[in-house]
Amino acid sequence: MSVHPTASHDAESPFVRTVLSVLERTEYRFCESGEDLEAIYRLRYDSYLSAGMVREDAARMVTDQFDDLPNAFRYGIYYDGILVSTIRLHYVDASMPVSPSSEVFDDVLAPRIKAGESFVDPSRFAAAAEWSRTLRVLPYVTLRLAVLACKYFTPTYCLTAIKEEHSAFYQRIFRSVPATDARNYPGLTVPVHLLQSKCSENMENTIERFPFFRSTAFERRMLFERPKNGELAPLTILPTAKYQKRAA
Description:
Aminopeptidase; eight-stranded mixed β-sheet; globular; 248 residues
């Protein structure tokens, strides 16, 4: 998280141009089974082990009970056809109240879910170490999926359960604020802090400040609309930020 852009309305700023140029060579892949899932689980393990967040394990994969929930969306981010990062998203509301954050912070979030609030809950963000060094904007390309999820599902808040040292990044980019104290997170060796960003107040401003978060309704449907009647999910989805003068 070492890239520190200056917020700008200028879509042609050097920082924005850099992210857009990376997006032109990026594909998002919705991962449901087989080799795709094994690849992102291995990437999680390698990334977390390198960061000291998990202990060595012979399986060399990181997965949990939240991966196969019906409200889970697992993605691989591919740059020039190479898997460089991954992220998982859950959409949480009263009809499907389970996600990593809603379990770890159950005493805080359960009453709010019952009261009608909803959440996009990103988790399992992991990046290949060598590509994190080469593609310094990789966090923005990856977390763009969380922004698109907020546009698609229109939740009350976007949550972030992270290590404390990453808090400043989310506060700066998404205007996230602390929701409660730090907690132990299943499978990790470090505690996590829960941040939240109120979507009605912050999301459009975030997209305006950082134009690479723009998207078309078509892209969002391809990413988050579940296939029906035996339809197959698209293999890859191409980012559409470069085509948008304003968020659709």
